[in-house]
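Supplementary notes for students who missed Thursday's class. We covered one full example, reproduced here. Read the sequence, then the structure, then the short commentary at the end.
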Amino acid sequence: MNETYAFILEYLILRRAWNLGYMPFSNFKRILEYALGIRDIYYIRKIFLHLKNKGFFIRKRNLKRSYLYKFLGPKSSTTMLVKF
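Structure (token representation):
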């Protein structure tokens, strides 16, 4: 599991996902599905929630009472210093 978290963080950093701005979970789900090659929504949601709880994503509530998420970027997320 730790290798998966590190791979996802490296992929998002290489893709410069912090420039994408605030997006719904469904967009990040598609990015994770493409990167991992896994279509299991429960597994992808578990990975996303773990990274969000570790502080790699911030969330903002929108007018539709749902949330938008933003990847914070390489300055706030260093893969070598994070303990999963």
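Commentary. The CA atoms of residues 9 and 78 lie 9 Å apart. The mean pLDDT is 86. If anything here is unclear, bring it to office hours.
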